[in-house]
Amino acid sequence: MSKSKGTPPPERDLLGGQHSDVDQEDKLERSLSNRHIQLIAIGGAIGTGLFMGSGKTLSVSGTSVILTYMIIGFFFFFVMRAMGELLLSNLKYKSFADFCTAYLGSWAGFFLGWSYWLSWVVAAIADMIVIGGYMQYWDPTLPAWIPAFSTIIVLTALNLLTVKLFGEMEFWFAILKILAILTFLLVSLYLIFTNFVSPNGTAASFGHLLDHQAMFPFGLSGFFAGFQIAIFSFIGIELVGTTAAETKDPHKSLPKAINSIPLRIMLFYVAALICVVSVTSWSQISTEQSPFVQFFTLIGIPAAASLMNFVVATSAMSSANSGIFATSRMLYGLAVEKDAAPQFGKLTKRKVPKNSLLFSMLLVVIGTSILFIVPNVMTAFTIVSTFGSILVIFTFALILMAYLSYRRKDPELHAQSNYKMPMGIFMSWATLAFLGFSLIILALNVQTLIALAISPFWFLGLYYFYAKRRNAVQRAS
User: Fold this and answer.
1) The dihedral sign for the CA sequence 217, 219, 220, 221
2) Which residue intervals make up region (Disordered) (predicted)?
3) Is the pLDDT of residue 46 over 90?
4) Mean pLDDT throughout 205-234?
5) Domain-by-domain residue ranges, the chain?
6) What is the pTM of this model?
7) Of 157, 249, 269, 417, which one has the greatest count of Cβ atoms within 10 A?
8) How far apart are CA 147 and CA 126, in angstroms?
9) What pLDDT score does 326 carry?
10) Which of 93, 102, 88, 94 is nearest to 2 (CA)?
């Protein structure tokens, strides 16, 4: 459909504020080139959930975790298709907060903006915790909080500099991650097809996928337990849609970006985990280390294991860096929308939202302090990442609810769409049911139940501040 004529109203942008302020938008966002955006989008599919979390999911779910990633990827793909159709239905929409506000009301934009901001704060906290665990690979006696807080200081300082530096760092971090995964896949396939035998006598073979008790070692409860970290692993796939929507030809670039998601899931998650299990066997994977690092240790190449540990550590730094960048820009955007204190809308001379950045990092410091209470890295990571998973579920549920409202209120826009969500209404309800089921699963484990029990306080707090803001607006009018 053609872009509507006339002057577009101010728009909410989760990554940069209000689009009506063109001067601010240029200085905040246009330092990132297409080269940066494309690599950041691809690299975003490879994060802490895969490199570190997959060890935990393999330990509780066995090889059925491969099915877990495929199931979650299947439903989340339809969330992205719903987002794609809505973004293309009106080119004034620059993010999912825009259409959620339009179809569900201002409360949806407020709840979504703040929850999405917090999800990236939580993701950054999880990355910091994991960085501490990676450093313990070289020095097991090193307390995890030392490298975690050191990384916070370094990344905060870097983010106080220019946006272009952030983009350049992420560009090279993404290339490193992609090359590491592709190299890992090629080495694994070589070992499998040459019938390599590791020092402990394990022969590399696809047959390990069907070893005795490998598929469901702890039954259905173990299978469901793997869903939490797997869901957390998908944080960031929605950025593909919002970055693509900013390009010159969204009707071409957005479908292309979304349609590539299944391929990325199959390559970076499913294929990688198949190779891990095929070469090392499920029973030998520890929950306390990245399975990708263990892989090279088990096949007798400790130098390569150390190199891979360096790669996954830089990957965690990359993910944390993306989260820090995103949180500061989202809080800035909330301030521009008057959904946050005006102090968060101030920029430095280098056009960096300093107050938003420092406040977000304060929360990251507080969250990372869980290492003083729960020194075990994997336990702390599970608790924190569970809360991130809950926020992802909430965000995706609102996107689907907005899609259902769009189908009910604007059937003519759907009829004109060239990028319709397949089985739109049915799959929206099916995916909402899956998201609800995922929340129930979180109640089955003590560690995940902790985060589930805390999460209502966040939403009650949001309701309180939204009601307070709404009453102030009504009194002013």
Assistant:
1) negative
2) 1-22
3) no
4) 84
5) 22-467
6) 0.83
7) 269
8) 13
9) 77
10) 88
